[in-house]
Design a protein that fits this description.
Shape: globular
Strand content: 15-25%
Helix content: 25-40%
Number of strands: 11
Number of domains: 2
Number of helices: 8
Structural class: alpha+beta
CATH class of the largest domain: Alpha Beta
Radius of gyration: 21 Å
CATH topology of the largest domain: Chloramphenicol Acetyltransferase
Order of helices and strands: HHHEHHEEEEEEHEEEEHH
CATH architecture of the largest domain: 2-Layer Sandwich
Largest sheet: 7 strands, mixed
Distance between the termini: 42 Å
Oligomer: single chain
Length: 284
């Protein structure tokens, strides 16, 4: 933000933009008002070729270019690996069905699965602090706070608002913050503060129908959890075959700081907490 004047900083904040994603064309490398207006312009909708055209070329927005740069930098810098597991969502689904109406009536927000995963992630991060840490030069910085970023897809690109100090939020507060940030993200009204300070990220590709994926790290974080589509499929349970709602989950992690044992244990803790949500209440 030092690259801009007070008026421009205010415009950046009101636009919900990250100053680091804005290409500066003003004198001395400063961000101008025009730079902000260009950065917050809606991404052009995809345009199918019209009759007689083989292809359509659309220039990348500056935000899209910045996203591409950060994702490629994460691949080039981190020793990124992904480990997978699967979760039986039966208990979480039953819990949601039992309390959905009463929860929404009391709190004015729907009870989703994402808040369960946020709370489960905090339980796991407490046990595996390396997943919540980051590398700074030759140092490893361990965080004693658990601020979970939730990836939200918008027409302008992917943004990751941070769900406050997650360890102090109840399910209702978490759901309210997620819903509020989702609306603000789609309206382009997220502030820089709401996009900063995350220690770990959760991405839910399942809302788009993804069955399995390998999420890319959100630097300088060392871990990102990928949720996916819940699909009913046969599994072996208690010596018999049953049809249950199952979800594949993925943890991408920076192998420079997180060992394979820690990554696998982290996902196992997520699995245990979601399959038995009472563990979250007792942080087991």
């Amino acid at each position: 933000m030092e690259r801009s004047g007070p008026a421009v900083r205010k415009l950046i904040e009101e636009s919900g933009l990250d100053a680091t994603t804005i290409a500066a064309t003003g004198p001395g490398g400063r961000i101008s008002k025009a730079d902000v207006l260009v950065a917050r312009a809606p991404m052009p909708a995809s345009q199918p070729p019209s009759a007689g055209e083989r292809e359509v070329r659309v220039r990348m927005t500056r935000l899209r270019r910045r996203i591409a740069e950060r994702l490629k930098a994460a691949q080039n810098t981190a020793a990124m690996l992904t480990t997978f597991n699967e979760i039986d969502m039966s208990e979480a689904v039953a819990l949601r069905q039992r309390h959905r109406d009463a929860f929404e009536k009391k709190h004015g927000v729907r009870l989703g699965f994402l808040s369960i995963f946020v709370k489960a992630a905090i339980v796991a991060l407490k046990e595996l602090p390396a997943v919540n840490a980051e590398i700074d030069g030759d140092d490893i910085v361990y965080k004693n706070h658990y601020d979970i970023g939730v990836a939200v897809g918008t027409e302008q690109g992917l943004v990751v608002p941070v769900v406050g100090v997650g360890v102090r939020l109840c399910f209702a507060e978490t759901e309210k913050m997620i819903a509020e940030y989702a609306h603000k993200a789609r309206d382009g009204k997220l502030t820089i503060e709401e996009l900063s300070g995350g220690t770990f990220t959760i991405s839910n590709g399942g809302i788009y129908g993804s069955l399995m994926s390998t999420p890319i790290l959100n630097p300088p974080q060392s871990g990102i959890l990928g949720m996916h589509k819940i699909e009913r499929r046969p599994i072996a349970a208690a010596e018999k075959i049953e049809i249950r709602p199952m979800m594949y989950v993925a943890l991408s992690y920076d192998h420079r700081i997180v060992d394979g044992r820690e990554a696998v244990t982290f996902l196992v803790r997520i699995k245990e907490c979601v399959e038995d949500p009472s563990r979250i209440l007792f942080e087991m």
